[in-house]
């Protein structure tokens, strides 16, 4: 009887392994995004590979400096599946980030990607915050040629601490990494988060919350 039970458990284990198995890699050479499709999938629908063209895998303009004349003093130029349909399912994208002197890329997260950033010009103060309960700030000042990693989902930022312009290129481990800017999400949601919630969460006067919500 004992042997019968052991054999049954082994069979169930084998079946569960088979049920959990999956193929993490693409099952074809590429899956060019079909932006005309209305089908809802986790990603974008593939168009007929016979219709793929060179421009499906191409983007130009990353050499052009971004316009940093805004309140943050920075400009992010993305190159993801929205710009290169051929990135669909390939799990990679990149951005160019331009910073005016003392400009910032404000605290934000990428819910679907780890980011690895390389400084091309200037000096950047960068950092990320670990998850609860520690919320430890890990930070460093980067020079030209330095590389820094921001783990997936963690709040992070960059600040130009030099007197000249700064430029960085960042690669991300998703064709559509997403971005959640913390201040915009908290104070600029649509519809707004109730002021009574934010007042208690941040332990500040309601007038301060309403002032911040008005700015976003």
Automatic annotation (TrEMBL):
Keyword terms of this UniProt record: Apoplast, Disulfide bond, Manganese, Metal-binding, Secreted, Signal
PROSITE patterns the UniProt entry points to: GERMIN
Binding site for Mn(2+): 108, 110, 115, 156
Residues at which oxalate binds: 105, 110, 115
Cystine bridges: 31-46
UniProt GO MF annotations: manganese ion binding
Annotated ranges, domain Cupin type-1: 60-210
Gene3D superfamilies: Jelly Rolls
Pfam family, one: Cupin_1
Protein family membership: Belongs to the germin family.
The protein's name: Germin-like protein
